[in-house]
Amino acid sequence: MSGGMEKPTHLALYEHELCPFCMMVRQATESLPLNIESRNILREPARQQELVKGGGRGMVPCLYIEFSDGRSEWLYESADIIDYLRRLAAA
């Protein structure tokens, strides 16, 4: 990818509909040409456990980023998630 940004193989957003920061991320990125899986921690309680185990914190929104070599990253903070996804879409 241009700009030195590594392309992930999978993106998943841990979120729920009552979270205003989650809504902000969804609204800011809905028009981006990215496939982002929604993992709702209220509708699927096991997702909350995944989030804590993988990312170390239970807060949402959290973007799970998986790469082809098996590495993964957990990105918290709505502004950081929006910035990352916009840069990824533009790369």
From TrEMBL:
UniProt domain GST N-terminal: residue ranges? 13-89
The lineage, from the top, is: Bacteria, Pseudomonadati, Pseudomonadota, Gammaproteobacteria, Chromatiales
Pfam (any one): GST_N_3
Highest taxon in the source lineage: Bacteria
Protein name from the UniProt record = Glutaredoxin
